[in-house]
Amino acid sequence: QVQLVESGGGLVQAGGSLRLSCAASVRAFSSGTMGWFRQAPGKEREFVAAITWSGSAAYYADFVKGRFTISRDNAKNTVYLQMNSLKPEDTAVYYCAAGSLLSSAESPYDYWGQGTQVTVSS
What sign does the dihedral 26-52-69-59 (CA atoms) show? Predict the structure, then answer.
């Protein structure tokens, strides 16, 4: 069974930090690339960050560069998103995804989690 389960979301003040985790089934995690996307109320889902299987390459949306860091622990089938210097505009549901290509587009990602809410208060 393919599963991606996000955790770590919550309410934080602006300037604070959160670390999201995504625990994946072996089948999903072995796809290779793991990514994070987010969807704010009333907006389309957008790319946040992605990382290759080896962890040697990562790709970030411009609006999170220098603030967010994606990493993975292949022994635990888990990918992380460390979010620092959070802003109210980072408020969204954050989704974990697994795919075969390092991409900011959604189409290469075959598996998706249910999402975790992140709310940043001003």
Answer: negative
- Contact assessment for residue 21 and residue 80, using Cβ atoms and an 8 Å cutoff: yes
Residue 28 has pLDDT above 90, yes or no: no
Q: Distance between CA atoms of 16 and 24, rounded to whole angstroms?
A: 26
Rounded CA gap, 15 and 5, in Å? 26
The tens digit of pLDDT for each residue in 94-107 reads 999 999 899 999 99
How is 26-93 classified by DSSP, letter by letter? Answer: HHHHTTSEEEEEEE-TTS--EEEEEE-TTSS-EEE-GGGTTTEEEEEETTTTEEEEEE-S--GGG-EE
Reported as a pLDDT band with limits 50, 70 and 90, residue 117 is very high
Nearest-CA neighbor of 35 among 100, 117, 89? 100
